[in-house]
Design goal:
The protein has 8 helices and 15 strands. With 417 residues, it is α+β, with helices and mostly antiparallel strands.
């Protein structure tokens, strides 16, 4: 009976098994506590590890075509001097410098696009930082590579830097051919596009096929002076890759800075447009056709209201970006105009003069200054001065809008005729 009870009773057998399992678990736990190579249970370490993984996932989650900056000049540097915030052990292999050799960090996948970490940066950015506000991430250009410096788990509601593949900016489904113009002031080369209009008084017209990019970059909110510009997110990449500079209204018109705050013809802004500058009699003394050089190079002028209408000639509808757009929106760059939704620099609140420096609406719309004060229904701040602008969205173009003159908008130039 003892043998039967000791060996064959199921309840006692299970109890013995449980005791054995508990003993084994305890032994493993004790061994683990004494093993220095085990994973640390320190909360800070866990936080860093978790943050690193999340950061990689966030960086690779963008739907943008690409984030890596194009570079023609890169400092190779000494490999031993490269630094990175990536920690060993975050992936199955390491290059010995603390940088993960995972394809997530260094290469492009079909689903995620480029990650910025360890991507190349050109020599002109060396030592500079890049802040991606959407993710609270800061990179520094070190020895030709973007190296992660810091990150925050807080997602900012302000603008977000994204880098795009601009290789098809001047590709048109209608095979438009482009000319070139070199600005003698700084040697910058612009693509130009010409259209035959069929008008007896004007057979063709030539435009910049990209936004003006003249001047030295200054931080958003800084007082503009001669030969200065803003770049979206205070990042020169945008200015240099087709988006061009953003300028206040007075800077575009080459008027005194006070004209950003006061109306044309006032005591503080005693200027006027030359409505007789055009050589075509029909266009003279008509404000919509004014040829005002402003910030454009000699022989060119700020694109006016009627010229925006001319570039839409043949569209059939006022469908904006779907006719003029390229790369980020539109429908095959049908017109060859290579329009980009370059966003704006807002320097004040909409309905008050209170300062509020913010880059916004890249990917959303293109907003270009045209000559003239605006006095329409969009005025929200009675203390501000507004300038005329053209607003282009994905499905429309509106030439009856205004914006605070102190804001930074894009500009296109037209060749004099």
């Amino acid at each position: 009976m003892k043998n039967v009870i000791a060996v064959g009773h199921p309840r006692l057998a299970r109890r013995g098994t449980i005791h054995l399992v508990l003993a084994l678990v305890f032994a493993i736990f004790v061994a683990g506590c004494g093993d220095d190579s085990s994973t640390s249970s320190d909360p800070a370490s866990e936080s860093q590890s978790s943050s690193s993984v999340t950061l990689s996932e966030v960086e690779g989650s963008s739907s943008s075509v690409g984030r890596e900056k194009s570079s023609s000049s890169v400092k190779s540097g000494d490999d031993s001097q490269k630094s990175s915030s990536s920690k060993k052990g975050n992936s199955s292999s390491s290059n010995g410098e603390g940088n993960s050799s995972s394809s997530v960090d260094k290469t492009r996948s079909s689903s995620s696009g480029y990650v910025l970490r360890d991507s190349l940066c050109s020599s002109e950015y060396e030592g500079g930082t890049k802040y991606i506000s959407q993710y609270g991430i800061t990179y520094r250009c070190i020895n030709g590579h973007w190296v992660l410096q810091s990150s925050s788990s807080t997602v900012s509601s302000s603008s977000s830097s994204k880098y795009y593949d601009m290789s098809r900016l001047f590709v048109s489904e209608n095979d438009y051919s482009y000319g070139e113009f070199t600005d003698p002031r700084d040697g910058q080369v612009y693509k130009t596009i010409s259209y035959e209009l069929g008008y007896e008084i004007l057979d063709s017209i030539t435009y910049f096929a990209q936004n003006l990019n003249y001047g030295k970059m200054i931080p958003g909110g800084t007082q503009m002076t001669d030969s200065t510009k803003f770049c979206y997110d205070d990042d020169p990449w945008y200015c240099e890759n087709g988006f061009g500079g953003l300028y206040t209204w007075a800077t575009v018109m080459n008027f005194p800075a006070a004209c950003d705050s006061f109306a044309i013809g006032s005591a503080k802004c005693p200027v006027e447009y030359d409505l007789m500058r055009s050589k075509i009699p029909y266009f003279q003394n008509k404000f919509n056709y004014v040829m005002h050089q402003g910030i454009c190079p000699e022989g060119w002028h700020v694109m006016n209201d009627e010229e925006w209408s001319m570039v839409m000639k043949g569209s059939g509808t006022r469908n904006g970006a779907s006719y003029l757009g390229a790369v980020l929106w539109g429908s095959g760059n049908q017109r060859g105009f290579s329009l980009l939704p370059a966003g704006v620099l807002k320097t004040q609140l909409i309905d008050s003069p209170e300062k509020n420096i913010k880059y916004a609406n890249i990917d959303v719309f293109a907003n270009h200054w045209i000559p003239g004060d605006y006095n329409g229904s969009l005025v929200r701040d009675s203390m501000a001065s507004y300038g005329n602008a053209v607003l282009i969205t994905q499905d429309r173009i509106d030439q009856t809008v205004g914006a605070k003159k102190v804001n930074g908008l894009s500009i296109r130039c037209t060749k004099d005729y």
